Amino acid sequence: QDLEMLQRLGRFAAVEAHAEPWVIFNPENGDPEEAVWVIYRVYSPPRLRKVELVGVSRYTRRLVEGAIGLEAGEPFFAEEQLPILQAAILSALAAEGWTEARVVLQGSPDAAGEQVDLQVAVTLGEPQRFGEIVLGGDLVVPQRRLRRWMRQEGVAEGERVVSSALNDARDRVLDELTRTGYRRWPWVPRRRW
Asked: The dihedral of CA 51, 52, 57, 58: what is its sign?
C-alpha cells in the first residue's frame, strides 16, 4: 500500500522498498524486540523538456496546445500518456470541424532517460463544412433574418462546422426571438409583426 501511495502521489518512475532486520527497544520495559527497518527508494520520473508541433497554423496551435495541457518540467510517461494526448487532440480538432485530422505523437527521451521531447505532427485534411441549411417549421420571422443571426455566429453554407457555433447560433436565434417579443420554444408570437 505504501508503494502504491508513493507511486500515485509522486508520479515517480519507480519506487522500491528495501527491508532489513532491526532491533528496537520496548519503551515500557527496555527489552529488545525484533523489528524491520524499511527504506523506500524513489526514482524521479522523466520530465517533459519541450513540445514540438508540426503542421499547425497559429489557430490550430492554440487548440493543440490546449488539448495537450502540459508544460515543460512536468512528469511525462510517454507510454501511458501518448494515447491519451492523441485522443484529446483529435477530439479538440473534431469539435472545430477537422473530423478527418490525423495526429502522430512521439516521445523522445534523452540518453539518461530523465527528459523527454514530445513531437506532435498534425495533418488536418479537409474540414467538414456546412452544406445546404434548411430552416423548417413555422417561421415567425423572415428566413433572411434567421440566416443573418446564424451567419453572425458562424453557421452558414460553406463555413467550417464548429460545434460551439451550432450552440451559439441556436442560442442567438432564441435570444433574438425572445428579445423581439416571442417566447422560447414553442415560438408563439406575443404581438403581430
From this structure: positive
β-strand 102-109 against 47-54: which pairing, if any? unpaired
Using alpha carbons, select from 69, 73, 80 the residue that is nearest to residue 107.
Answer: 80
Number of Cα atoms under 13 Å in the Cβ half of residue 48? 19
The total number of residues written for the chain in this structure: 193
Tell me what pLDDT residue 109 has. Answer: 87
Instruction: Kindly report, residue by residue over 4-16, the tens digit of the pLDDT.
Output: 777 666 567 677 8
Distance in angstroms (rounded) separating the CA atoms of residues 100 and 62: 19
The proportion of the chain whose per-residue pLDDT surpasses 90, expressed as a percent, equals 44
Q: What is the DSSP letter of 160?
A: B
Counting Cβ atoms within 10 Å, is residue 6 exposed (0-12), middle (13-18) or buried (19+)?
A: middle
Asked if residue 165 lies in contact with residue 153, where contact means CB atoms within 8 angstroms, the answer is: yes
